[in-house]
Amino acid sequence: MIKITKKYVDYVCSESNRRTTHFILIFEDKKHSVLLSHVNLFLYSTTRSSRKTSSRYASVISMFYRYLSTTDDFNRIHPNQYHLFSRNRHVKRWQTDRETKRVAQGAASPSTATIFGEAKLLMNYFRWLGDAGFNPGIEVQLKTWCPPYKSSRYQAYIALKAKKAIDTTSIEVLDKESRQSALRSLITPYEIRLLTENYSDPVYSAMLIFALSTAMRPMDLCRFPYFGNGDNAHIAPFSAMDFSEPTVNYTVHNSKRRKTRTILIHQDALETVEETYIKPLYVARAKKYEENYGEKPPLSLLFLTKDGHPVTPDRIAQRTSAAKKRALELNPNLRANLKFYDSRDWWPTQYMIRSFGEEILSANDGLYNLAVAEVLQNQMGHKFIQTTFNHYMDMARIILSIHKGRSTEILRAAEYSSNQFIAAVGALDERVAAMVAPIRD
After folding, report:
1. Cα(269)–Cα(416) distance, rounded to whole angstroms?
2. Would you tell me the crossing angle of helices 112-131 and 88-105 to the nearest 10 degrees?
3. Distance between CA 265 and CA 223 in Å, rounded?
4. Cβ atoms of 260 and 280 closer than 8 Å
5. DSSP-based three-state secondary structure for 22
6. Cα–Cα–Cα angle for 351, 338, 94, nearest 5°?
7. 301 DSSP 8-state letter
8. Sheet holding 3-12: strands in order across?
9. pLDDT the model gives residue 220
10. Res 143: pLDDT
C-alpha cells in the first residue's frame, strides 16, 4: 500500500492576494515526495472555507487512493494518474472491501451509512474533475451505487470474504451496535477523570477541563490566546487579570461557519488553566517552539504540545482517541464512543439547572425563556436556538432526575463554576454507588 501524507497549508494566494488554508495530499515514495496535483486543486477550489471539510475530503480521497494501490489494476500506474484510470467498479469494490474488513474485525464502525456517505463525498471529487475538464474515468451519476447491505446474498458474500464463521445478518447487527454507540449522553465525572489521567501530554487534560468550563469547540480552544488583544485585550493569565465579577466575556472570532460570538468564562476556569498548564509547562514549551520555528510563540497562541508545536483540532482528536484506548484497558465497560467534543455539554446543562431549578422536572413543553436560550446559543455557537434549548433542557432534566433525592445539593452546586459543579455531581454519584453496592451484594 502506498504512503500518502495529509498536510495543512497556510499561504497567501497569488490570485486573490488573501490568506488561504486547506489540506493537501503528498505521495511519498522511497526517494521523492510528490504533490497529488489534481486532488490538491480540488481541495483548494472546494474546501478552503472549512478546515474540517478539507480534512474530511482529504482523508476520504487518501483512503480511496491507498485502496487502489493494493489492486492489480493500479500496479503500474502513478498515483497522480489514478483519477484517469479509476472506474465506477473500483468505488463499488472499495465500499465492499471496507465492509469486509469491518465484518472480519467484528467492529461497529465504519457503519454502512458512513461507508456509503464517504463514497458520495468521493464522487463529488470526481464530479469536480469532470466539470474542470480533467476527464476522470469515473462516470458520476446523481445517485451513486449503494451496496445492497440488507440482501442476505450480499451479507453471505461479505461473511465468506471475511473468512469468518458468522451469522449472515452480521452487517445488520454491527450497524445496530454502531447506532447504539452513537447515542449521545452526558460525559460522566468518572469518564472525565479517566480521560484526563490517560492523556500522554497534560496539555490535552488542561484543554479538556477548560472545554468543560466554557463549551468551546476544539478549533476555538486551539486559538485561545496567552495574552489577548482587541475585543479580548483583557484576557491574560489568571494572576495578571482583574475581576469585578465571577465571569468575563471572551469573543470567539472566526468559529464554525466563520461566525463571531461572545461567550462567558468563569474566573475559576482561567485559574485552573494557569495552575495546570501555564505555570508548570508553558515556559519550557515556548522555548521548544522557538527552537522549531525560529521565533517566540505569538501571544495569540497559548496551548503547545510537549514538543513545542501548536495544538490543533486533529491532534486533540488523535490524543483523545489514544487516551480512550488506554482508559478502556483499565475499564472495558467505558463507553467506546467518548469524544473530546462531549465536553461541550456540561456548561449548558449546568446553566439550565441554574436558570430554572426544579421547575425543569415539573415543566411541560411550554417552558421556554428567550433570554436563557440566547445565552445558550451564544455560548454554544449553534444555529437553531429552539433546538439547542430543548436539547439541554433534556440533559438538565436527566441530571436532576437521577439525583432527585439530593436536588438541593445539585441546585446549590449549579451556582459554582463548572469544575465545582462536575465535582459535586461526581461526589453524589459515588455516594449513590456506595449505597447501592451493599444491596447488590
Report:
1. 11
2. 160
3. 15
4. no
5. strand
6. 135
7. -
8. 3-12, 19-28, 33-35
9. 94
10. 54
Report yes or no: 246 and 266 within 8 Å, Cβ to Cβ: yes
Containing 28, the helix (H) or strand (E) segment is strand 19-28
Q: What is the pLDDT of residue 137?
A: 84
pLDDT at 34: 92
3 state SS of 397: helix
Query: Which long-range contacts does 58-61 make (Cβ < 8 Å, 24+ apart)?
Result: 58/6, 58/23, 58/24, 58/25, 59/6, 60/118, 60/121, 60/122, 60/125, 61/25, 61/122, 61/125
CB 343 within 8 A of CB 211: yes
Q: How many residues in total does the chain contain?
A: 441
CATH class, domain 189-340, is mainly alpha
Q: At what angle do helices 51-68 and 37-47 cross, to 10 degrees?
A: 160
Is pTM beyond 0.70? Reply is no
In a 10 Å sphere around its CB, with 0-12 CB exposed, 13-18 middle and 19+ buried, how is residue 342 labelled?
A: buried
With CA atoms as reference, report the closest residue to 149 among 116, 119, 108.
116
The Cα 321–Cα 328 span in angstroms is: 10
The pLDDT of residue 165 is 41
CB 229 within 8 A of CB 265: no
Do the Cβ atoms of 314 and 55 come closer than 8 Å? yes
What's the confidence (pLDDT) of residue 363?
58
Q: Which is nearest to 205 in space by CA: 267, 285, 275, 263?
A: 275
Tell me the mean pLDDT per 10 residues along the chain, length 441: 92 83 92 92 90 92 95 92 91 88 78 84 90 85 61 68 52 51 68 93 96 93 96 96 93 86 93 96 97 96 96 92 91 84 90 85 66 86 80 81 78 82 79 40 34
CA-closest candidate to residue 174, choices 120, 100, 119, 277? 100
For CATH 1.10.443, list the domain ranges present in the chain: 189-340
Q: What is the structure's pLDDT at 221? A: 96
For the chain, report the end-to-end CA distance as a whole number of angstroms.
Answer: 54
